[in-house]
Amino acid sequence: MAFFFVFLFTAVCILVSLAVLLYSSRQKRRSAVGQDQELMLPPGSMGWPYIGETLQLYSQNPSVFFASKQMRYGDIFKTHLLGCPCVMLASPEAARFVLVTQAQLFKPTYPPSKERMIGPSALFFHQGEYHLRLRRLVQGSLGPDALRALVPDIESAVASTLGAWDGHVASTFHAMKRLSFDVGITTIFGGLLDSRHKEDLRRNYSVVEKGYNCFPNRIPGTLFYRAVQARKRLREILGEIVADRRARGDQGSDILGGLMRTRDGTAAALTDDQIADNVIGVLFAAQDTTASVLTWILKYLRDYPKLLEAVKAEQMATYEANEGGKRPLTWAQTRGMTLTHAVIMESLRMASIISFTFREAVADVEYKGFLIPKGWKVMPLFRNIHHSPEYFQDPDKFDPSRFKVSPRPNTFLPFGSGVHACPGNELAKLEMLVLVHRLVTSYRWEVVGSSDDVEYSPFPVPRRGLRAKLWKEEGDGVVQRGAA
Length: 484
Ligand code: HEM
Fold this sequence. Notes:
Blueprint: H1 2-25, E1 26-30, E2 36-40, H2 54-59, H3 62-73, E3 76-81, E4 84-89, H4 92-101, E5 106-108, H5 112-118, H6 128-141, H7 144-165, E6 169-171, H8 172-189, H9 195-212, H10 223-248, H11 255-261, H12 272-303, H13 305-321, H14 331-335, H15 338-351, E7 359-361, E8 365-367, E9 370-372, E10 377-380, H16 382-386, H17 425-442, E11 443-447, E12 454-456, E13 460-462, E14 467-474, E15 478-479
Parallel strand pairs: 4-10
Antiparallel strand pairs: 1-2, 3-4, 5-7, 6-14, 7-10, 8-9, 11-14, 12-13, 14-15
Helix pairs in contact: 7-8, 7-17, 8-12, 9-10, 10-12, 12-15, 12-17, 13-17
Bound molecules: protoporphyrin IX containing FE.
């Protein structure tokens, strides 16, 4: 009898909990499309109060976390991360809905400490006229004419990066970060930046980076505190550079010049804070992203020796056409590197270093009969789309030949999509083509230790940044190893 009462009590508890859950997930809301509808939140789990499922996300590979959720709940599901309720979207249509067709309903959003660290006036935190004006400016400075003119500078940055690495073991990621920083600096400041300012920027920027992902605090000596101080110093250095240009009466035709010249509808110029935020923003957007993908490219080329041979054959043809590298690489030559380009595209897909992006719903939005409540974070999951067998056959196989055919619309989004899509994508690809050209025509490299584990810094890179030894290859098959 006692057993019967315990059973009855448990059953009633379960039914009451289910009813509460059902009631709380069904909310009558006026959706952004204007109809009064009974809308349900997407399926999913919200985890513990406040911390939600943050611990699960950080205690396992984030890709596994999102992939297992998608398997369980489908292409749209809810969760709760870092104190915020979120809706995850893992289909190409949903990514297009959020980033392109209904972009006005979703604003860009970053944690406040990160926004302050980069600079609140950086274009990617904004929408509307201010965003559009700055975006046009950056995009214009990264158009085909500007890139064509940048090829010699990128070549010399690549030569100096590989030259510094030649003969010893180093973290590929760190070497590539140096390269992408140098290219970022050249793009922003043209050839006009003196070496003292460049080194000051490099030193302080690297302190900012180290504290960027730390818990915000005001305790002197912590990485976060030091990053805040270095950020102030960056602002001062950029103030000096801007003042120098004003004093010379030559603003320059680079990104900084564009930022100094631009005017809004009332003819107002950007303030020096706004200029500094946007310079730091572009550097931030350009550096680790490009460096992570380059690191993956080196790993994949090493993992697939036949592919490396084929890439080398493609690059040697250009190298020989340039009299053994005596004549500089041209923009037109980089446009003809079909196989290398496919390797870059496949590396972007496989590594999906930007696994997702964040937006915030500015109104209640209905999507496919589900409610996305105002204020919730919305995350299109690029990696899940790039690794779906529905869009990429055998998705975990590294196969550049799949890019002989263009991917279906909205299924390949390494550079995002819509109004905030990456304006630096052609520059990034150019940098990769030039690096691969120089690397495979003049060097060999050997990975040291295992390269199969992944670490997050914050983008995924092979463990310890892919430690590798690089040495110059001279003559026909005669390999000269540098001093270890
Ligand atoms: C492989 C390298 C790169 C990858 C994978 C990448 C990826 C992305 C993605 C996915 C976005 C959109 C983010 C979103 O919608 O929330 C973005 C935006 C942006 N990227 Fe890149 N990026 C790369 C390199 C660069 C470079 C080299 C530059 C500049 C020189 C750059 C500048 C920017 C800027 C300024 C934005 C913000 C655009 C806006 O809000 O309108 N990126 N990038």
